[in-house]
């Protein structure tokens, strides 16, 4: 039996463009694994983010390859499964993952910057009803997140991290707020320092460990 079908695997889902992936993504993931007692985290490398401009976005193969490198030798799996699922919005991706992996327990992971704009996401309340959400503090975004329309609705569902970790089964809606030492690394800063970072993966055709498919240079699987 492979790891995708084990009963009771507790899996965090961290979505993003990973343009590129960096040590901050890994550090956050390892922190959440420990804080919530997860078995692993999946990095959902997005084919395209509806809330982000396409300009400056590296090819999927390059972004995916950078995620593979950053997740090496950690309980983290980089995957471009959203492209295979054919989903564009998070609410559809999460529903599809639950259908495909019904024996897993998923939790959606996001930074407080995303919570601040969560009310702009398609069917955001349905996302909260689909699986628990853990929000990781990010410098300069916390005040906006706490005052956001989404937080006004989610506040009643807050669960302490320690209590959440001890639960046998998870239910939703549930919101866990996590704080840890800020990590100043960002994909934006890395792109400014090296605008041509993706060229090192120009010939990359990486294999997705979750879907077992190869990702081509045009992002096709």
**Helix/sheet category:** alpha/beta
Number of strands: 6
Kindly report the average pLDDT value: 88
Measured as a percent range, the helix fraction is 25-40%
Strand content: 5-15%
Annotation field: number of helices: 10
Rounded radius of gyration (Å): 17 Å
Shape from CA axes? globular
Biggest beta-sheet profile: 6 strands, parallel
> What series of H and E elements makes up the topology?
EHEHEHHEHHEHHHEH
Strand line-up in the sheet with most strands = 3-2-1-4-5-6
Catalogue the unreliable spans: 1-6
Our measurement of the CA-to-CA distance between the termini, rounded to an integer number of angstroms, reads: 25 Å
Can you walk me through this structure?
By secondary structure, the chain is α/β, with parallel strands linked by helices. The model is unreliable at 1-6 (pLDDT under 50). Strand 1 (10-16), helix 1 and strand 2 form a beta-alpha-beta unit. Strands 3-2-1-4-5-6 form a six-stranded parallel beta sheet. The protein starts with 9 loop residues before the first strand and ends in a 28-residue tail after the last helix. The protein contains ten helices and six strands.
Offer a concise description of the structure.
With 221 residues, the chain is of the alpha/beta class. The chain has helices at 23-36, 60-70, 81-85, 90-100, 112-116, 124-130, 142-146, 149-154, 161-166, 187-193, and strands at residues 10-16, 40-45, 76-79, 105-111, 133-136, 175-178.
Give the secondary structure arrangement, pairings included.
Elements: E1 10-16, H1 23-36, E2 40-45, H2 60-70, E3 76-79, H3 81-85, H4 90-100, E4 105-111, H5 112-116, H6 124-130, E5 133-136, H7 142-146, H8 149-154, H9 161-166, E6 175-178, H10 187-193
Parallel strand pairs: 1-2, 1-4, 2-3, 4-5, 5-6
Helix pairs in contact: 4-6
């Amino acid at each position: 039996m492979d790891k995708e079908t084990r009963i009771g695997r507790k899996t965090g889902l961290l979505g993003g463009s990973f343009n590129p992936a960096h040590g901050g993504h890994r550090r956050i993931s390892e922190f959440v694994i420990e804080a919530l007692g997860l078995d692993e985290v999946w990095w959902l490398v997005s084919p395209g983010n509806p809330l982000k401009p396409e300009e400056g976005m590296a090819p999927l193969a390059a972004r995916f390859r950078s995620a593979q490198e950053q997740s090496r030798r950690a309980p983290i799996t980089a995957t471009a499964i959203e492209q295979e699922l054919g989903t564009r919005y998070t609410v559809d991706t999460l529903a599809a993952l639950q259908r495909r992996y019904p024996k897993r327990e998923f939790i959606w992971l996001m930074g407080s910057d995303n919570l601040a704009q969560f009310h702009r996401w398609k069917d955001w309340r349905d996302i909260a009803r689909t699986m628990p959400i853990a929000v990781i503090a990010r410098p300069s975004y916390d005040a906006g997140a706490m005052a956001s329309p989404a937080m006004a609705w989610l506040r009643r569902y807050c669960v302490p991290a320690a209590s959440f970790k001890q639960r046998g089964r998870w239910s939703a809606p549930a919101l866990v707020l996590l704080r840890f030492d800020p990590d100043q690394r960002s994909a934006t800063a890395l792109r400014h320092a090296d605008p041509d970072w993706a060229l090192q993966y120009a010939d990359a055709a990486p294999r997705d460990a979750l879907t077992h498919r190869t990702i081509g240079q045009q992002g096709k699987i």
